[in-house]
Amino acid sequence: MIPDTSAQDRALPRRSPWRRRIALIAVAAVALATLAISLPHLQRTFSTDTSVRAAKLVTAVVERGAFVRDIAGEGRVVAAFAPTVYAPHAGAAELKVHAGDSVKKGQVIATIASPELAAKLAQELSAADAMRADHLRAQVDARQRRSALQTTWDNARIDLTTAENDLARQQRAFDAGAVSGMQVDHAKDTLEKARIAHNNAKAGLGLADESLRFDVQAKKLAHERQLLLVADLRRQIDALTVRSPVDGQVGQLFIAERANVAADAQLLSVIDLSALEVQMQAPESFARELAIGMPGEITGNGQTWKASVSAVSPEVVQGQVAARLRFDGATPQQLRQNQRLSVRVLMDRRDNVLMVRRGSFVDEAGGAYAYRIRDDIAEKVPVRLGPSSTSHVEVLAGLNEGDRIVVSGGDAFAGAARVALSQ
Predict the structure, then answer these.
(1) With pLDDT > 70 as the criterion, what percentage of the chain qualifies?
(2) Helix 181-239 to helix 115-176 angle, to the nearest 10 degrees?
(3) Nearest 5 degrees, angle CA 159-CA 161-CA 166?
(4) Which helix (H) or strand (E) holds 153?
């Protein structure tokens, strides 16, 4: 026979039904307690539109403090004065310096050979000599003509005196009965003719003086005008020796060595390293508020220098505006052109201002609302924001001090009115 397992069976004692009931009651009590604790959270969860993990959000607390509006960025050292030298006249240019050379003010940096100007100067010099000879000749002619007119006047005066004396003799002789009255009348006529000749000679001498003076003056002015032309040509020829306008360094060369250039062609640039400025790019949103004279700070080489805005570009390029800052006081000597420095421009400072850290919520819907967090619920509330800086934005309405809001990551809410935040 095959044995079975009946020998291994044994009867178990019956458990008391009260123990089982007590266990069920304990489990039910624990479940009710857990439900009571989690009921408020479940109610908040079911009352929201959606749920988002809190770890994906960046929050900040609304606070009061000193609100500083500034623009911070990277700047580049540029020369405040970098004049470009131009060719004063067409000709063959010869550069006397190379790019990067240090130059002093007045140092010869280029020469231009212009045979045309040299020939023109020689012609004008010859014309000036001829005009000088004409002036001297006019003076001699004037003296000769005046001498001749003076002789005529002197002869007329002598003839007048002779006629007067002859009339006096004829009158005495007529009174004595020695001559006839006809001779007296003839003497009177002669005297009248002498008087007219004398007056005409005197008037002619005066008119001739004025005419001769005008002729000589005209020759003199023509000569002086020619001398001015010669002086201008000499100035142009002297300008062919191009000199450095400032102390500095040769920048860019615009022509090749010994090249023929046209008038007013660019030759080279000279950088004045004694007057350096820092140029920065500011966002377009600050373009209307940037103004000349605003204080700023420039940091680099382990130092910080005070500065002020000296120029603001009138145009916007690729969403940015160029601004230049000038050092207050002497320009630091250790700086180099195109060196990168940190720049900060202080636009405004106010105390006791309600503000919050700046985030993407400023740009969402134009900053018309924000999500305020209370009891793990982000609630959409309307707000009104004021000016903003690189780190904070002023709160004008809609939030109170101590409120915690979502400053970044709110795009995950999809515009919901209430959002539950899960851990």
Answers:
(1) 89
(2) 170
(3) 90
(4) helix 115-176
Torsion of CA 378, 383, 385, 390, to 10 degrees: 0
Read off the pLDDT of residues 331-386 as tens digits, 9 standing for 90 and up.
887 777 788 999 988 887 888 889 988 888 887 767 788 888 888 888 888 888 88
CB 196 within 8 A of CB 163: no
CA–CA gap between residue 76 and residue 62 (Å, rounded): 36
What residues have CB less than 8 Å from 361, skipping those under 6 apart? 367, 370, 371, 405, 406, 407, 408, 410
Output the CATH code of domain 50-69+351-422: 2.40.420
Question: Which residues of the chain, if any, have pLDDT below 70?
Answer: 1-21, 23, 31-49, 365
Give, in order, the Cα–Cα distances in Å from 307 to each of 104, 217, 310.
28, 62, 9
**Contact 309/293 with Cβ under 8 angstroms?**
yes
377-382 and 418-422 strand pairing: antiparallel
**What residue segments make up the domains of the chain, in order of their start?**
50-69+351-422, 73-79+272-349, 84-114+241-270, 115-234
Q: How far is the C-alpha of 184 from the C-alpha of 167, rounded, in Å?
A: 7
Residue 89 backbone dihedrals phi, psi, to 5 degrees: -155, 155
Q: Tell which residue, 74, 77, 69, has the closest CA to residue 394.
A: 69
